[in-house]
Amino acid sequence: xxxxxxxxxxxxxxxxxxxxxxxxxxxxxxxxxxxxxxxxxxxxxxxxxxxxxxxxxxxxxxxxxxxxxxxxxxxxxxxxxxxxxxxxxxxxxxxxxxxxxxxxxxxxxxxxxxxxxxxxxxxxxxxxxxxxxxxxxxxxxxxxxxxxxxxxxxxxxxxxxxxxxxxxxxxxxxxxxxxxxxxxxxxxxxxxxxxxxxxxxxxxxxxxxxxxxxxxxxxxxxxxxxxxxxxxxxxxxxxxxxxxxxxxxxxxxxxxxxxxxxxxxxxxxxxxxxxxxxxxxxxxxxxxxxxxxxxxxxxxxxxxxxxxxxxxxxxxxxxxxxxxxxxxxxxxxxxxxxxxxxxxxxxxxxxxxxxxxxxxxxxxxxxxxxxxxxxxxxxxxxxxxxxxxxxxxxxxxxxxxxxxxxxxxxxxxxxxxxxxxxxxxxxxxxxxxxxxxxxxxxxxxxxxxxxxxxxxxxxxxxxxxxxxxxxxxxxxxxxxxxxxxxxxxxxxxxxxxxxxxxxxxxxxxxxxxxxxxxxxxxxxxxxxxxxxxxxxxxxxxxxxxxxxxxxxxxxxxxxxxxxxxxxxxxxxxxxxxxxxxx
Length: 582
Known about the structure:
The protein is an alpha/beta fold. 29% of the residues lie in helices and 22% in strands. Among the domains are: 155 residues, Rossmann fold (3-Layer(aba) Sandwich), CATH 3.40.50.980; 98 residues, GMP Synthetase, Chain A, domain 3, CATH 3.30.300. The protein is built from 17 helices and 26 strands. The relative contact order is 0.11. This is Long-chain acyl-CoA synthetase. It holds the Pfam family AMP-binding.
């Protein structure tokens, strides 16, 4: 019998947190429509002070869905969304789902090359994009199949007075306007606002079901280049409900979420697009994190829920102290995507009246797997306990049928109703990431039922962990070689491929070097052509032409050669150790 068969983490759950929750048969469309009815007069969205009620949000989703239907979107189609945080993003997300189509989220700060790779993979024919990027998407090769670009001017969601100021003929206004919008209709693109002039979609139009695919979320997975994780309505909804069940006393219809995390990222999407909207919360949206803007909003509508990454919490504390703004309204502060330094936890809890707790997840798990209790027994330095309906195992990374005991390091396996079904059009990589129950010895226990934790395959996380006798998970190492910087995953292979195109670079290994904030610094060890001197600025400038800024190495180290295995594979762990010592 497995050492974890009795689910020891359950003994550490906070009072009132259920061991299991009901797995819903609803779709995300059912949920947003219920919120539009139940919380009709409550504010759903706030953007630079402009507000949208749940009734208005529901009506906008219906009109946008009808507009997209007229453009030819039907069930099963992929629709790309390339937008910053803004009300149009929320509306587009649910409008696509209303048609039974599949949302494909993209980082709007990606370079054309990065976006091109993803569009080649998913083959969306319609893209809803920030108007500043409309020309980039329209210029993609016609063989890729992008037929229609819908351009979104995010400033149209701002208050009228603010929009008027942005149109003033002064340098500051022109600069601010240029950051937010193209400033004129994108040639050849459909204007987003025109979709909202459609009538509501017919009530009898077919609706998505819980097991239909809702989202392709791109991730580097456990290895290699980005690939689309296939997530269903049920996956996303149950993960939202698991998180809500974890919280002590959430107040439906009264919470104020601050959307400082990008919603194209799995963490921001689940906490803001699905969780906040299902709870009838006010979601205050920020197109990019700016402490001054956040504190300005906090003076009028103080946040109660702040999901973020450690650098954001650190900057928020510093800015709030300088401005004399209280953060005491925040009841829930959940950190994820990167390690949370214990010193930051102490600083946050000394300067606010809330606990700052760390969680853990991955895109393939919708994404949340474990969170520390929002209670006195939270354990800094760990990533907490598995959420309800989630089962874990710790196994030998080379032999997943061999299980580890308490406090023994091994690879973390996860299963539950929030685990994805595989990668888009990548059957071999899906098979590597998902293991059948027969592979994981002694995996069946009495609490496992078809609608609870035991359903579905085991997800290989690629993370090396230990689990204490009372269920707390500690991350020891990553079997995968992804670099986590500022809460984002960076694939070393992708960065290496980009820089190898530089004529002076003969060989390269990209690794993560520890940073003071608990994140990692993308660092490149390079072998240069004979006679060439290292010019970090030139290499960095070159990398920026094909990589989004957070992927560009901040540090370059010249080496004579790279350590390799007998079969020629670069030994990145040895490279990392050498670089840390320099």
